[in-house]
Amino acid sequence: MARTREDDGTPVPQRLLAAATRLFAERGFDRTSVQEIVEAAGVTKGALYHYFGSKDDLLHEIYGRVLRLQQERLDAFADADAPVERRLRDAAADVVVTTIENLDDATIFFRSMHHLSPEKHKQVRAERRRYHERFRALVEEGQRSGVFSSDTPADLVVDYHFGSVHHLGTWYRPDGPLTPQQVADHLADLLLRALRP
């Protein structure tokens, strides 16, 4: 059986994911070999295949871990006992911050999603749809109650915000003039201004 921990205590799956993330970000998914990943992680191919069936599985997990975090946080915001405007703003800002904090993961995924197997691609699309539907439900709740304008369809509002989120990797730089929270606040405020009655 593959060793599950290295001397520093980091579990092998996390080491493999960290190595794959770094290499996919630097070289691209299609230009990174399994051998390069296992060498960077300091494990054998057997260890990789013990935890991940393929390089495709690593790519799927890189995206999945961020989406699971974001879904869990969105559910907490959506279920909070707060006005819908506050819940939507918190959720809109949070997806920006968590995307920036995991920018390599998000960039790799959007650049490499087409490399996933059809089955995994379908699964990821379903997971993203669930997230977007929960976010859209907040917009619709505010529109029904009159807190938000219903002039713009909720689907378009969601696409507008997530279009901005999905392009963060093309322009955001950690050494730039704005912190992740400042970018999040600006984008969340833009969203709420677009929804004002």
From TrEMBL:
Residues 33-52 bind DNA. Signal peptide: none annotated. Residues 10-70 form the HTH tetR-type domain. The lineage of its organism: Bacteria, Bacillati, Actinomycetota, Actinomycetes, Kitasatosporales. Keywords: DNA-binding, Repressor, Transcription, Transcription regulation. Pfam families: TetR_C_24, TetR_N. It comes from Streptomyces sparsogenes DSM 40356. InterPro entries: DNA-bd_HTH_TetR-type_CS, Homeodomain-like_sf, HTH-type_TetR-like_transc_reg, HTH_TetR, KstR2_TetR_C, Tet_transcr_reg_TetR-rel_C_sf. GO terms for biological process: negative regulation of DNA-templated transcription. It comes from the Bacteria. This is TetR family transcriptional regulator. GO terms for molecular function: DNA-binding transcription factor activity; transcription cis-regulatory region binding.
